[in-house]
């Protein structure tokens, strides 16, 4: 790594896109083009390489398929069925609707793999019901914000697909590795909800009625089978993770149009168009990231990062602590796509050199990034929930901080007890 003109342009350009908050794809693309011109590299040749890498990454095809599935589920109001099921199973406990919020997010996460889809879909229903029954607006939104982070940790997971592309880790192992951490996140949030509900005297939930529960289960069963079919297909070897995305998309259409009859042809077309727009944005981000990664590798930035960190300590547990702290700070100011596609490749060589399991690191870093979606000042989920509920951001942040603390505890548990992540993959995939 040398401070020549191309590298200086690269550093200044990257700093500019972060400071000015330029759309990350356009910023990385512009910075890359300027670097190539300064270095005497034909941008056209680089564009060809980017496109070749993009279209050869078969696993990436799963991303728009899961995005489509999430949009179908939200548009068809399948989230309503999930909420009713979760509500029926909680029983008569204080703060019951808070627990329903978490359980609903956990179930929904097994269908979409997206925190944004959770917050903007079932989230609005959860907040409305909690406020209607006497919960503080800020707390209702805070629970929705933090519970949405379960989505990309519990399988399937869109961020884990990107991580698998970058690291070469098994997507099947990553999906299975996220199961126990996802459940642990749910438990941690529910413990705090129980505490604060008793402290603030939030209302009791509805009594558990077996007949009502069985009815809600019967209605929600087609939706509840989605993660079973999805994950069962992957781990039985019947489908690849990418094919599972197609299977999930097809199944979502079937239950929405034929079972629940809540999705019409016009709505389906709107979902297709919306998915195409989202996919276009994602493709631009991934494509520009390939160009950016070429520059990072050419300038030997990962090696420099590794030398700096190893100069501090060669203890992998201390280094995991440093990585977690750095990424938590990055998550406060930078969007997850930038962290995933730019910063993770910088530390992966160090992770591999220290013998840290890539599945363990992947689940850890995805959870870390999801916490970033909830942290002020730029937590995306905070703005989404505030926007759809019209609750002031400051009010949400106040009640979100303790819940973030609960998630950070889980983060450090899975960091230093790798078996939480690796138990299921090592048991069933070895």
Describe this structure in words.
With 430 residues, the protein is mainly alpha-helical. It has one domain. It has 22 helices and no strands. The two termini are 40 Å apart.
Q: Which parts are unreliable, with pLDDT below 50 for 5 consecutive residues or more? A: none
The value of Rg in angstroms is 22 Å
Percent strand equals under 5%
Main pleated sheet: none
Q: What spatial form do the alpha-carbon principal axes imply?
A: globular
Share of helical residues: over 70%
Mean pLDDT: 85
SSE run:
HHHHHHHHHHHHHHHHHHHHHH
The overall number of domains is 1
Number of strands: 0
- Helix count equals 22
Report how far the terminal alpha carbons are from each other. Answer: 40 Å
Content-based structural category: mainly alpha
Topology, pairings included?
Elements: H1 5-19, H2 24-39, H3 43-56, H4 62-75, H5 78-90, H6 96-112, H7 115-120, H8 122-132, H9 137-147, H10 158-167, H11 171-177, H12 179-200, H13 210-235, H14 241-259, H15 265-298, H16 301-312, H17 316-333, H18 336-353, H19 358-372, H20 380-389, H21 393-416, H22 419-428
Helix pairs in contact: 1-2, 2-15, 3-15, 4-14, 4-15, 5-6, 5-13, 6-8, 6-9, 6-12, 8-9, 9-20, 9-21, 10-18, 10-19, 11-22, 12-21, 13-14, 15-18, 16-18, 17-18, 17-19, 18-19, 19-21
């Amino acid at each position: 790594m040398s401070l020549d003109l191309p590298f200086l342009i690269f550093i200044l350009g990257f700093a500019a896109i972060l400071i000015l908050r330029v759309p990350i794809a356009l910023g990385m693309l512009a910075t890359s083009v300027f670097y190539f011109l300064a270095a005497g590299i034909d941008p056209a040749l680089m564009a060809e390489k980017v496109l070749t890498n993009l279209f050869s990454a078969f696993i990436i095809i799963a991303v728009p398929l899961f995005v489509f599935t999430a949009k179908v589920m939200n548009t068809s109001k399948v989230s309503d069925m999930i909420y009713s099921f979760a509500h029926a199973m909680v029983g008569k406990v204080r703060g019951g609707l808070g627990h329903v919020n978490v359980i609903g997010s956990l179930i929904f996460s097994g269908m979409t793999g997206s925190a944004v889809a959770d917050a903007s879909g079932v989230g609005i229903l959860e907040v409305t019901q909690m406020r209607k029954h006497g919960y503080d607006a800020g707390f209702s939104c805070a629970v929705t914000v933090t519970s949405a982070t379960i989505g990309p940790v519990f399988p399937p997971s869109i961020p884990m697909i990107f991580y698998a592309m970058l690291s070469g880790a098994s997507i099947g192992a990553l999906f299975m590795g996220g199961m126990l951490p996802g459940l642990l996140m749910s438990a941690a949030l529910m413990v705090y909800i129980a505490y604060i509900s008793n402290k603030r005297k939030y209302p009791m939930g509805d009594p558990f009625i077996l007949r009502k529960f069985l009815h809600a289960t019967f209605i929600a069963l087609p939706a509840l089978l989605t993660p079973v079919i999805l994950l069962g297909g992957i781990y039985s070897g019947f489908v690849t993770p990418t094919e599972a995305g197609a299977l999930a998309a097809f199944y979502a259409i079937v239950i929405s149009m034929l079972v629940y009859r809540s999705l019409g042809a016009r709505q389906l077309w709107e979902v297709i168009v919306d998915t195409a727009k989202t996919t276009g944005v994602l493709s631009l981000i991934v494509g520009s990231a390939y160009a950016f990664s070429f520059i990072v590798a050419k300038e030997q930035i990962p090696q420099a990062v590794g030398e700096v960190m190893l100069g501090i300590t060669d203890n992998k547990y201390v280094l995991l602590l440093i990585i977690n702290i750095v990424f938590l700070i990055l998550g406060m100011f930078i969007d997850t796509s930038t962290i995933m596609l730019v910063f993770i490749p910088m530390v992966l060589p160090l992770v591999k050199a220290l013998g840290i399991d890539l599945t363990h690191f992947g689940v850890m870093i995805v959870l870390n990034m999801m916490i970033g979606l909830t942290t002020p000042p730029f937590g995306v989920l905070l703005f989404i929930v505030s926007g759809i509920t019209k609750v002031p951001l400051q009010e949400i942040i106040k009640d979100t901080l303790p819940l973030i603390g609960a998630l950070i505890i889980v983060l450090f548990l899975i960091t230093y007890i790798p078996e939480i992540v690796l138990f299921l993959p090592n048991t069933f995939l070895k």
